[in-house]
Write a structure and sequence with these properties.
Helices cover 14% and strands 34% of the residues. The protein has 5 helices and 15 strands. The longest helix is centred in the N-terminal third of the chain and has 12 residues. The N and C termini lie far apart (58 Å).
Length: 336
């Protein structure tokens, strides 16, 4: 270590000194809560709940952060402490950043006309962590959102400031990815190609899906090569992704129906950046509308990324990614 480098323990001590310091003070939302913004949000999310329209409308709770965002012109409310913390991490080589997760708590509904203010604090800085992306520190900020001076909700936002891990050499264009083969619904997925323990350990793995009590049945279906859609036991509305209750009537009762596998590309994006281990950009990520009327986000395969089009027919397949993971993907062409 050179004389100008900072030892990890010493750096962490300096980073931890920022915990509890203000990240923003007396911030002001650029607009009061308003119906047009609520309408645009609901249209984008496909949420037609009647509570979000009409004279007695409230804002969807998950819009909490939207009322505090500064847009392209930004906010002038951020404190010098947050910029100092970011500069300290940059100076230590942790120059990349990725948002990792957020948590929200809702204390009262927001209604059109509410004036939004907020305060934010640097809640925690983690010790140095090594992840698949690289090595760095997690920084968590907590924002308290007030409506007309009354606490309405809390938003915790966590980022990772990191130094990217070295990427393995890319395979030649057109060469198959090790261990990746596709199968159609009802077919047994082929075993992944056998690799030496050294090669298997060095190869980057796809991120694991978060499996919990609300969606475990979905992933059990995927393992059996079945794409299962939730169906409300009260109003028969279909929903995907899985949720603990019906967004239409609120009923917690449900069963499942199996998707036929047919669909069309409703929308899509082509991912060029940022690079991520186990992915080889550019590649297409589609919002696929299934024949049953629900939508799912997944990869569109079987066609070059620049040939994906809205309205393109696709067909469900299951992709064996590695020894442990299979994922539903959609092959262009529509007929299996």
């Amino acid at each position: 270590m050179s004389g100008t480098e900072t030892a990890p323990d010493e750096l962490y001590e300096r980073l931890a000194a920022y915990e509890g310091r203000a990240a923003a003070t007396a911030g002001v939302g650029k607009d009061p809560v308003n119906l047009p913004m609520i309408r645009h949000w609901c249209e984008a999310m496909g949420d037609a709940h009647p509570a979000y329209e009409g004279p007695g409308a409230v804002a969807p709770p998950t819009m909490l952060q939207a009322w505090t965002m500064g847009g392209l012109s930004g906010h002038g409310d951020r404190s010098g402490a947050y910029d100092e913390l970011s500069a300290l991490l940059d100076g230590a080589g942790y120059t990349s950043v990725v948002a990792t997760d957020c948590e929200q708590e809702y204390l009262r509904p927001l209604r059109p006309g509410d004036a939004i203010t907020f305060d934010a604090v640097i809640e925690s800085v983690s010790p140095r962590k090594t992840t698949k992306l690289g090595t760095g520190h997690f920084v968590t900020t907590r924002m308290d959102v007030l409506a007309d001076g009354e606490l309405a909700g809390t938003h915790r936002f966590r980022i990772l400031k990191y130094a990217p891990a070295a990427r393995p050499p890319k395979p030649e264009r057109g060469a198959p990815e090790p261990g990746q083969r596709a199968s159609k619904p009802g077919q047994r997925s082929p075993e992944p190609e056998r690799r030496s323990p050294e090669t298997a350990a060095a190869a980057p793995r796809r991120p694991r899906p978060v499996v919990n009590r609300d969606n475990a049945g979905f992933w059990e279906g995927v393992a059996a090569h079945r794409l299962l859609i939730q169906r409300c036991g009260a109003c028969a509305s279909l929903r995907l992704p899985w949720l603990p209750g019906c967004a239409e009537c609120g009923s917690p009762e449900w069963d499942t129906v199996e998707a036929s596998g047919a669909g069309t590309v409703y929308s899509y994006v082509v991912m060029h950046h940022p690079p991520f281990p186990a992915f080889d950009p550019p590649y297409a990520v589609g919002l696929v509308e299934l024949a049953e009327g629900v939508r799912i986000v997944s990869n569109v395969v079987g066609v070059p990324y620049d040939k994906v089009r809205i309205g393109m027919p696709v067909r469900l397949e299951f992709l064996r990614v590695d020894d442990e993971l299979e994922l539903p993907v959609f092959r262009a062409g529509g007929e299996g």
